[in-house]
Amino acid sequence: MTPINRREFLSALPAAGAMLAGKSLVRWNGPIGVQLYTVRNEMQKDFSGTLRRVARIGFREVEFAGYFGHDPKEIRAELQRNGLTAPSAHVPIPVLGKEWDKTIDDALTIGHRYIITSWIDQKDRTIPKYHSFAALFNKVGEACRKRGIQFGFHNHDFVFFPIDGMLPYDLLLRETDPALVTMEMDVYWLKKGGKDPLDYLRRYPGRFSMLHLKDIDAAGRMVDVGKGVLPWREILRIGQSAGVKHVFVEHDEPPDPFASIRDSYRYLLRLNA
Question: What is the pTM assigned to this prediction?
Answer without folding.
Answer: 0.89
